[in-house]
Design brief:
Oligomer: single chain
Number of helices: 14
CATH class of the largest domain: Mainly Alpha
CATH topology of the largest domain: Cytochrome Bc1 Complex, Chain D, domain 2
Largest sheet: none
Number of domains: 2
Distance between the termini: 119 Å
Radius of gyration: 29 Å
């Protein structure tokens, strides 16, 4: 018995040292929800990009919620009626899978059940409808990379397109952001740009968060793109026009090269001139 107790004491000491040295980091549901969930969900603040989670622990089965939190798209693709209904209701916005243990998910659900105690209130931000022309223009410069982001993050256009932004459009690694203002609404878009909780963006912008001014300017620019709609025929004509110019220049270079060759081949040789 004494040996067993001694072993327990040693294990407790090792665990305490690991916690003290940061070897084991305790899961903090408040911090996790604020960083990973609050860009799309509230707890009692009404529907946002995703549903208000107040009372969800009473409405849904715990086992179902644990699976949905960790692999929502798998549940949706399997045809689960509740998951499919939610997916369609909230404009088919994909929720990233959460790599959490059973204990972490249960702690997160307990936090939601508590009403979100300790969570900071949603970011209060001026509506993009009040933006000045200069703020919208600045947002376009930030989007295109003409003006660098303060913390050194990459310009949006490297991965995204938005309306007529950029002479030849934007990147295709990320989704088209033309309708992002309509999809996320004003406050939702502010939170998305502030939190940047999407897995790839979270890594790219780690330690390079946008300033409040940059968030507002980008949001204002995206509202302008939303109102203008997708790049129209004018942008398509411009692209075709540039393509035709390149084609003609290419044919011109080939023709010039061919003429030079013909001239050289038509010159009489020494034997022929004699």
């Amino acid at each position: 018995m004494a040996v067993g107790q001694d072993m327990k004491n040693r294990l407790s000491l090792v665990l305490a040292l690991m916690l003290l040295c940061g070897g084991v980091q305790a899961f903090d549901p408040v911090e996790y929800f604020d960083k990973k969930c609050s860009s799309c969900h509230t707890i009692g603040g009404g529907d946002d990009v995703g549903p208000d989670l107040k009372g969800v622990t009473e409405r849904r089965d715990q086992k179902w919620m644990m699976r949905f939190i960790r692999e929502s798209q798998t549940v949706i693709n399997a045809g689960d009626p509740i998951a499919v209904e939610l997916f369609n209701k909230y404009r088919k916005k994909k929720m990233p899978d959460q790599d959490l243990s059973d204990e972490d998910v249960l702690a997160l659900l307990d936090f939601i059940k508590s009403g979100g105690q300790g969570l900071e209130k949603a970011i209060a931000s001026k509506s993009a409808l009040e933006a000045t022309g200069d703020e919208i223009h600045r947002g376009g410069q930030l989007f295109s990379g003409e003006v660098a982001l303060a913390a050194g993050g990459p310009a949006c256009i490297q991965c995204h397109s938005a309306g007529s932004a950029g002479p030849l459009g934007g990147g295709t690694l990320g989704p088209d952001l033309t309708q992002s203002y309509s999809n996320y609404n004003d406050q939702g878009l502010s939170k998305v740009l502030t939190k940047i909780a999407f897995p790839v963006m979270d890594q790219v912008y780690a330690g390079k968060a946008l300033t409040e001014a940059e968030v507002y300017q980008l949001k204002s620019f995206l509202l302008k793109m939303d109102r203008e709609g997708p790049a129209g025929k004018g942008a398509q004509k411009k692209f075709v026009f540039l393509g035709l110019i390149g084609l003609f220049l290419g044919f011109g270079a080939i023709d010039l090269s061919w003429r030079n060759r013909r001239r050289k081949s038509s010159r009489p040789t020494i034997g022929e001139s004699e």
